[in-house]
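We both want to read discrete structure tokens more fluently, so let's practise on a single case. Would you supply a protein for us yourself, any chain you care to pick? Would you write everything just below, so we can both look at the same thing?
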Amino acid sequence: MLRAAWLGDGKAPWGLDRGRRWGDPAWALAAISQAWLLGGREGRWPRLEQEARRPLGPRVVRIPATFEAHPDPAWVALLRHGSAGVAPALRGPREDELLAWAWEALLAGDGTPWMAAGSLLLDLPQRLRWVALLGAVDEAGTLHLPPYLDLIPAGWRSLPLGWWEFMLRSQDAEGRLLPEGPLDPGLPWPAIQRHAEPMLLSELPEDLVPHHDSSWLHPGPDGAWMLDPRLRAWARGFGASARGLEPLVPRNLGAGRPPEPALAGVLALQMPPDPPPGWAPSLEADLQEKVSRPEPPPASSHPTWDRLRMRWGGATAESTPGYPAWGTLAHPCADPFHWMAQGQEALRACEPEGALRAFTLAHAHFVRLGSPGWTSRAASNAAFMALQWADLPAHRRWAALRGPLPQPWHDHEAAQLAEVYLEPPAALARIRSLVETHPDFAPAWGLLAGHGLDGEQWDLVREALPHIGGHPYAQFLQAALGPLVEDPPGDADPETRVSWGAHRLFRGHGSSRAFWAAWRDCPAQVMRLELGLQVLERVPEERSALRLLALQAIADRADSNRHQRRLAALWPRHDTDQDPAPTLLFKDWLAKRETPTWIAWEEEGQVHSLGTGEAPPDGALSRLAKDGTLPPFLHGDWVWRGHPLIWEGCSVGAVLLAQPAERPPQPPLEPLLIAPWLARIRARRPAESIVESGLLWTDGSEPMASVLRELDRVAGSDLPVLILGPTGTGKELAATEVHRRSGRSGQLVAVNCSAFAEGLLESELFGHVKGAFTGADRDRRGAIEMARGGTLFLDEVADLSPRLQSLLLRVLQEREIRRVGSDHAVKVDVRFIAATHRPLEELAAVGSFRRDLLFRLQGAVLHLPPLLERRHEFPYLLPRLAIRAAQAARRPIPALAPGLPQALAKRPWPGNVRELLHALERAILRCEDGILKPGHFPELEGPGPKTRTWEDATRTFQRRLLLDTLQACGFRVADAAETLGLARPALYATAKRLGVDLVAERIAPSS
């Protein structure tokens, strides 16, 4: 059990001095360090609840109880972007390569790169101050620190119980200890006071020698001693602070110390005035980047100089405090020359990923030290290793940091990338251009030979071979022009060995085991990807899921669409163009059943069944199809029981299962497995021929059948027709049908009475003469005149003003009209049809609608029923509506899942046929597998639409206004607050109240 200030076991003596909010790398470092100490270092990442306030930064609210192999992605997103709502893998706009790697590793469960980043985000004094903030003490009194703070020698991390805890928490702002409790007068206070300020005593002073075995004196390594900090506090000695801990830190560049003057000169690419003896020639050759180098100078016993010496072929430098063991990929060592040497060691060991990570750390520390020349060198090395590792997106970023390569290496690299990204003919054109531009450049001819080898274009290999010279491929290329029956030479490099093995496999006399062993050892990842793909393409028996996945990982890292397509073609694919014939699959499955199994469903009044084994008793299947279930019963040697088959919330049939009477009953899995396949068998695609004209469909049942009979009776007369019914029931369609059956020679003219102001509606209906009002520049016929000999349809007639009601009444009585502004009456022969969803009798009773006009319009009345009264017609209506909806959505007509009409009939559909038709259009757009299911209708997932309250509407308006203002101000909070007339804290409070995540909204557009 750990105790620490960030766990609430005391008050930290000072703040972080870095970071201001979530999303800041310094705060992320502190939060990750806490998770690291609580289990992350062991691969057990806690599910943390942390709060953060300035200046102390993150702290754990409660001890975690849940641990997992990977950190919580929402927690990572909060630390990385300042909001848990942003994708945690999204790269931040200001992240360098090291931080991007650290976040990627953290999501995979590895926090080591973050521990290495600590020595970059914080300088040495800040790291020492953070010891008191993040240090934790276990029950034995041992100090635990995240690696980037672990600057204290191992021998001093275990002290008597309570000493470290006291030094961490009992300090003032200067780092001096604060006394606690009573003072013991029996102690030798004069001697203690003389030696109380430093944390360590290099040797035991003479006046304390008599007390060497006292409990308040602790011996440490190398003959050093420590006084009990609770005693030193009375003399205001230093605790776990920058001044107290500084003497314990190794005095080298690896621990974060500033470079010595000579090293500072080397960092500036200048010859130091006093290099180690015998080092001047090697230093001069390296700083001037000479091709020929002298022999490595003698070792200097200095950690940084000896690591620089490794660049020139010198022996591996000795282990030093503050430096990691060789082979360590990530460590807070702050010496960039160590990481340059580590990168070269990994390169020689054919470990491109390790080399890339080492050069990434070297680059970051050269940037920290302000050394642009060495920064460019590290970036160039990293770019080369990213290419080797096939991390081509990273290569592009490193190439931008290093700058352009000198020729001909620039064109050579471009040709290498063309081999990855372009199709072979285009890649060959790039290589041809390279060899023509640089004919004396041997690596260019090596690319040409390799390209010819991959495509078995042996003329290219013969053309290039004389120009290659000492290229490692030369011996292999020469052998490849022959039968290639011999094994590769023992001293062949990994690239030659894997190519040799691949082409022997192609020719049918190679060893599969030898090739894949060479493939695993090859460090050139692009070569591994290309040759591995060629082997799996040409030798199908070599394919395995594991090998395909290994190649997929390289192709994903390379971001190569060309290789992705080739890989996808190697995986077996289901032919989606062929019907899997679910009925046949059912019969095959039933044939393999050991117990009687019968499936039954009812369709259009008939019982259908499929089954195997002993038949159930007569009537059982018909009852099962009707009721959907059967209670257990004994028949023959079996106990039978019927179970419903439910799919997507709809009943699609039932299954009758038999089991031996002696066995205990078991919960059946069959209903869950059968239902989707039975639904597919029963799915039907509507035939387009079932669509008649209009949408007034009915299966002949009431109440719609009565409406159509009445419509047919009145259609042939000249009686006015009044059509009543809720919105969306098809009133205009009914009017069209009346006109179609009337036999009148004129056209049907429709006018929506609610769509015009009174003055405009009068002109729309009656027409006007030139000069009747402003803008009337010519005579115009109205809708009534245009409908002469035909039918005038007045939709929403209840919305007519009293004056227009009077004018319309006169038309109905006199059969004549006057245009606006005219004294001349025009006789008209028009059949009137009016419609409204409003109750005209009630409007007439209160005087809103003229009763005499109502009487005139009620020559015949058609009451269109709402969809709620036609639920029984859904199995008939839905196929026809689905055809219309598919035509409107410009999509193929989907098959309808069984039970879909019944599921849709359960909803009230207040918008009636119009609402249902629009819902079908939206569902067909969502339908991708050709079967329209209840799951495609979100209207079925919850209750119907609710009435919005004033508060809901106000909140929606405020949220939209806030987001629009922030967007217009480029998410500059101060500008947005000024625009809205709010104080900045008020804007933050408003955003929180309205549920607006400012960070997520700012990042969303760029993601």
Q: What stands out?
A: The chain has 43 helices and 24 strands.
